[in-house]
Structures are given as C-alpha cells and as structure tokens.
Design brief:
alpha/beta; 5-stranded parallel sheet; 4-stranded antiparallel sheet; globular
C-alpha cells in the first residue's frame, strides 16, 4: 500500500478543460467545459449531472483517456503506479490502468466483427488471464442476470437493439469487478425491470468497495444511491 493511500481521494480532477476544434465547420472551436474541479473518495458513488450537451460524457472520456484534455490534471490513486496524472500519463500506463483497474460503460457499443455477444462480454476476463471457458461461464451469468436471451448469446451484437447493447455494455463493465467504474447514462434505453437490475448491480458493486463515477439525467433515481453530486454548469 502506498503511503497516504487511505487518506487521499481515489480521483482528483483539477481545473479540467476540453476544447474541440471542428475542422469541417470553419475551424470553429467548441469548449464544452472549462475549469472543472472535483474529488471522488474511495468507495464513493459520485454523480455528475447537468443539462444535455454541457460536457458530462466528455469528462468521463477525459478520465478514461478516450479524449486528451486541453488543460488540467486528473490525479488517480492507482494500485499499480501510485498517484498518477491520467491526463499526462503514457499510453502504456493508460492501457495497464484500463486492463486492471478502470472500466468504462458507454451508451454506445463498439461492434467487433464476427465476435459473439458471449465472447464480447467475456473479453475483459480473458485479458486478465482467465481461461476462456471460465470467462465464458462468468459471461453467461451476467448475460442471464441482465435478461439477454440465451438464444442471442452466440449472435453478433450488431443484431441487438439499443437496450440490448446497453445491457451488454453493462455486463462488460461489471464482469471483472473493476476498482473504478465509469458509467455513462447507465439506465438510459432500459425498461423498468432492467433498470431495477442495474441499480441493484451498482449497489452491490459499491458495497464491495468499487468506486463509481456516473453521469445521468435520471436524478430522481441516481440521487438515492449517490454519496455526492457535482452539478456541471455552463462555463464551469
């Protein structure tokens, strides 16, 4: 354990700014957010909320390093490397963090050609070194829990509906029990039963010590779970 690990937050975002350069639209610059700062404690359920288009998902993507930040720091207290600034870390460090500590559940699914839903779900465990047969067994458990019909498990996710994509993404995010979980609108596109199952999954993960950072418009539901809410405002 690193010195001070129990007292420092697991995540500290400092003066984060992101600017997009739209080369196809007269080189226009768009700045969804600037000077965003917050801290997330270990084991916390942290909710980011705000109106559509204000940059909530972009913040998650900066933390996961799908996006490079324009400026600011993202300090993560890692088991592997100690305290590391994700915004400035090497690609190798980011890959290691994604494989062993971080998971990101997007609203959208990147479809791998000719790969079954079962193997798409099992992939995070295979990357961690689990035998494929064991990973598939665990994937079956998650797909069954999330209500994806067994007849669909060997099909390509390209044939899935939006709600099925969302549930498959959630299964991939939760299956390896990550240390830090980033969820982008986790209950969007879900029916009432699936939504209740996902809320149960989040509660169980938090009870197991997983830190959860989510963005959502479903404030009434998420506030019941959240330990802290950060309201993202225009010009933040």
């Amino acid at each position: 354990m690193y010195q001070g690990e129990q007292t420092q937050p697991i995540l500290e975002v400092c003066h984060l700014k992101k600017t997009f350069h739209l080369h196809l639209v007269d080189g226009r610059l768009i700045e969804p957010f600037a000077d965003v700062s917050f801290r997330v404690e270990r084991g916390q359920f942290f909710l980011i909320s705000g109106k559509s288009g204000i940059g909530k998902t972009s913040i998650l993507k900066c933390i996961y390093r799908t996006y490079l930040t324009t400026s600011g720091e993202i300090w993560y207290a890692s088991h592997l490397f100690g305290r590391v600034d994700i915004a400035a870390a090497s690609e190798k460090t980011v890959r290691e963090l994604r494989e062993h500590e971080l998971a990101f559940c997007s609203q959208f699914l990147h479809i791998l050609p000719r790969v079954s839903a079962l193997d798409v779900t099992a992939e995070p465990l295979v990357r961690l070194g689990l035998e494929r047969s064991e990973a598939r067994a665990e994937a079956r458990r998650w797909l069954r829990r999330l209500g994806i019909e067994e007849s669909r498990w060997q099909a390509s996710p390209i044939t899935f509906s939006g709600g099925e994509h969302q549930r498959l993404n959630l299964a991939r995010a939760f299956i390896a029990c990550p240390r830090f979980l980033l969820l982008d609108e986790p209950t969007a596109s879900l029916d009432a039963l699936s939504k209740s199952i996902v809320l149960e999954m989040m509660s169980e993960a938090r009870a197991a010590g997983v830190t959860i950072l989510t963005v959502s418009h479903d404030i009434a539901t998420m506030e019941r779970l959240a330990d802290n809410v950060y309201w993202l405002q225009t010009g933040a």
